[in-house]
Fold this protein.
Amino acid sequence: MNANGTERGIVFLKWFPYDKRNETIAAALGAECHFICSLKKRTPWNAPIRYLLQTFKTLLLLWRKRPGTILVTNPPVFAAATVALHCAIFGGRFIMDSHSGALAERWRLFQGLHRLVARRAALVVITNETFQAVYRGWGAQTRIISDIVMNIPCGKPTALRDGFHVMVICSFDPDEPVAEILAAAAGLPEVSFLVTGNFGRLAPELIGSSTPNVTFTGFLPDDEYFALLHACQAVMVLVDTEDTMQQGAYEAVSVQKPMLLSDWRVLRESYPSGAVFVANEPDAIRAGVLHLIEQYDEYLAGAERIYRERVAVWEENCRFLAGFCTEVPAGEENRASPSPHA
């Protein structure tokens, strides 16, 4: 393998403009990280054209690089299917990094393809036992990696006025209770809510109804986003869908900040300390914020404790992935023996 992780080495692909998670994993493995996208505007209507263009871009990149091991993010399953096609023709093997959205209802039509690709993968990385059961039922080898500890620099200095500041990490997807968060914020005028993400996806009337203690930051450059993570007192990441692991929670752990998370089983199991769990309702969210403020020192200590625990787990997972990516010579059958950790 050469210095940048290619020449029968490791490549990590995602059909998206950027993802800190992919970058972090690639750096840990000495892999080359590529984000493949097409068309500036992403809509359901132009998805077929985008996916077709990205298929050609992916095949061209892999033909040039000829890596021995390819990691690919799923969804969309078409990205993993493209990688599987390359491996079938040119050799090598692939690991499918499968996120919770891959099993969402909107992908059900392509479940047959999903099953086939999962069985062809040398390994499927998932975030919890629920998804592990699904993929094992399809005949795939699996590994649970539920937390990524990221190196998040302080970035551009951010000066926040005195008070308690909650960073609300949003993508404004339909499964996020944004209206409920704004309603809760209206009952907490003494708390500042800094809502990140492209709020152009939010209904104008909802934006207009927000109270003065809510700031929509828009989509921030990395240095400003990282600075805000370090400057705030707590991070809120809420979702209506069960069994969803959230990158915002990974980021909060990485900067040792207390969290407010939705009260789902998988999240309670993943974050036994440093987090307040709330129902996705205005009164429950408001009560959760007040409880966090009242017990802040306890939750801050919990955040620091879970950070130390997650660093140890992340280092173990990095060792496993690095060994897995290199233990089978390129060109062997695109399968691997089950890991003792699987």
Summary: Confidence is low (pLDDT under 50) at residues 1-6, 333-342. The two ends are 27 Å apart (CA to CA). The chain has two domains: 10-145, 164-306.
